[in-house]
Amino acid sequence: MEQSTHSASRPLQPHRCRPFIKYEFLVWLLYGAWTFLAIVDRFTWNVWPRETHRIGAGTAGSDFVGEVHFQLKEGPWAVKLYDAVARISGRYCIVALNLLFFTMCHTTYAWLSECWVARNLVDMRNYVKANRRLHNWNGIGIITMTLLHVWSIIFPSIVHGWRAQVVLGNFEWILSERGPKGFKDINVKTRTMTLQGDDVFRIVEMTLLLAILLPLTVKWLSTNDILVCRYTTSSLCSTSLTLSAVTPTHTHGFSTPRSLCTGLVIS
Question: Cα 154–231–54 angle (5° rounding)?
Fold first, then answer.
């Protein structure tokens, strides 16, 4: 009887909801859905085209969409492959680069792991290892997609023997190259692929950074040095995107601020 009275006099404990979804699964789910929609948008609705982005004189070019959804540029299969790879890899890299930065925001995640969300909705007990896996897998993905993106323009030259030429444009604010009037990357009649100086620079830059220097640093450097190298490489990639005339507002608006803020939120 005494024990029963004592139990009845205890204060009621607040009810806590058990987190019903694991953090890593939730990120893969949201990230996969967002990437899928971004890629489909580039082949269909294209709700935020490059034509709407203006900096200096002119626009960031024009996005080919076609009269029907998923229509590719005219030409043999290597031309269509170039068009598809360029669109898919471009949208993939925009989303993936932001995820790479977000997974390095340690202070932000430490706060999230202790807030109401972690206590009631999302199980974040293993978020450190989860972020490491997310970062590593998407790092491999963005390296692969970036190299495909910059090299895809010469696919027709490699496969079909098309002529490749370089035509320099005008350089304006902020160190961005604008295409000359009437510029076309594909000329089916003359079987010619036309690159700008910006295209050549990015082929050399990204191949040197991502295919040569980054793998070597992973092999040679210590863990802390590797992190510094990765932050430097990702910041250079964001800077390269910012300086390009063909990367529109959605790249400048998302990737660049994330790159600049990374150093402020890493602890």
Answer: 55
Instruction: Convert 218-249 into a string of H (helix), E (strand) and C (coil).
Output: HHHCCHHHHHHHHHHHHHHHHHHHHHCCCCCH
Residues 243 and 175 sit within 8 Å (Cβ to Cβ): yes
Cα–Cα distance, 34 to 26 (Å, whole number): 12
Q: Where are the domains of the chain?
A: 18-159+232-265
pLDDT for position 27 = 96
Any idea what DSSP says for residue 72? P
Rounded Cα distance between 122 and 86, Å, is: 36
pLDDT in tens, 199-228: 998 999 899 988 988 887 777 766 666 667
Residues 52-104 have pLDDT tens digits of 666 666 555 667 777 788 999 999 999 999 999 999 999 999 899 889 888 98
Residue matched to tokens 């003359």: 190
Give the distance from CA 230 to its chain's centroid: 15
Question: Token pair of 95, please?
Answer: 């989303």
Separation between Cα atoms, residue 235 and residue 32, nearest integer Å: 23
Decide: helix, strand or coil at residue 40: helix
| Whole-number pLDDT of residue 234 | 67
What DSSP state is assigned to residue 209?
I
Token digits of residue 208: 């040197």
Return the pLDDT at 263. Answer: 43
0.85 exceeded by the pTM? no
Task: Residue 178: name the closest of 151, 205, 198 by CA.
Answer: 198
* C-alpha to C-alpha distance for 81 and 64, rounded to whole angstroms: 14
- What are the helix (H) ranges across 152-222? 155-160, 197-206, 214-220
